[in-house]
Write a structure and sequence with these properties.
By secondary structure, the chain is mainly α. Helix content is about 70%, strand content about 0%. α4 (about 115-130) packs antiparallel against α5 (about 130-140).
Length: about 270
């Protein structure tokens, strides 16, 4: 492994851990109240007082980004856990039970995955509002079919192995086969898929927020911060640049972390 590859292997996880830490402890170290106007000058440049400048209202941009981390990372993490957890249970059940249950569930989720993710998100959020529970459930449902397909494909291959056949022959039940025989032999692909789904959820959440259907004012996630401060783009205002860099740094770092620890062979499509 080259020096650059070794460096990337540890820098990327460090960036991911940094943003996770900011989601939990960020408000405790925020230099200013993110909702309070600090300066009369709008889109102020970076300075000693305001490290990342100010936004279109004169609020400290560093504090806004730190506050937005909790929503971007928090919502994405919970939604990914719902998506991957539900897909894991359904995929294991389909591989262990098989038959009509497997076929019916697969056809239903195939129909659901055929709906474009952004269109589904726009319709649901526009119909039911953009509250936190609605956003989390919508994002979780959108990526559930993809998780199910990957888990099922891996689980079916594992279920066909000899040790699973032996477990069935000695009279083990379906839940035992699912949890003790199949699941431990597919942890790597599931964790890799979790990281990828997290990236997809972050990008979709940011897209919805950029369109005004995500996290609502006065709170803001990174996508909302880009939308709010898009007017400063012609002036090179850091208020619009740094939230976009935060999204890019998180998604790229998660992707590099997956590649570094699991390798391309473990990644789902």
């Amino acid at each position: 492994m080259s020096a650059a590859a070794r460096l990337t292997r540890w820098i990327a996880p460090a960036i991911v851990l940094f943003w996770l830490a900011m989601a939990f402890i960020g408000p405790l170290i925020s230099p200013y109240d993110p909702a309070v106007i600090q300066d009369a000058d709008l889109f102020e440049a970076m300075s000693r007082a305001y490290w990342l400048g100010t936004d279109y209202f004169g609020r400290d941009m560093l504090s806004r980004i730190i506050a937005g981390t909790r929503y971007t990372v928090g919502i994405a993490l919970v939604a990914t856990m719902i998506s991957v957890g539900s897909g894991l249970l359904l995929g294991l059940a389909a591989s262990a039970i098989g038959g009509v249950f497997d076929m019916a569930l697969s056809r239903f989720l195939d129909a659901l995955i055929s709906i474009p993710s952004k269109m589904f998100g726009l319709v649901v959020v526009a119909a039911f509002g953009s509250s936190m529970p609605v956003l989390i459930l919508t994002l979780g449902i959108i990526y559930l079919p993809g998780c199910y397909r990957i888990v099922r494909s891996v689980a079916v291959n594992v279920a066909a192995l000899d040790f699973v056949t032996v477990a069935r022959a000695r009279g083990e039940g379906t839940f035992y086969v699912m949890l003790r025989e199949i699941l431990p032999n597919m942890i790597g692909p599931v964790l890799a898929d979790f990281g990828l789904r997290f990236i997809y959820v972050v990008l979709l959440l940011s897209s919805l927020s950029f369109l005004g259907l995500g996290v609502q004012p006065p709170e803001a996630d990174w996508g909302s911060l880009v939308r709010e401060n898009i007017g400063g783009l012609p002036y090179g205002a850091p208020a619009v640049i740094f939230p976009a860099l935060a999204i890019a740094s998180l998604t790229i770092s998660v992707n590099l972390t997956i590649d570094g620890f699991f390798g391309p062979q473990e990644r789902g499509h």
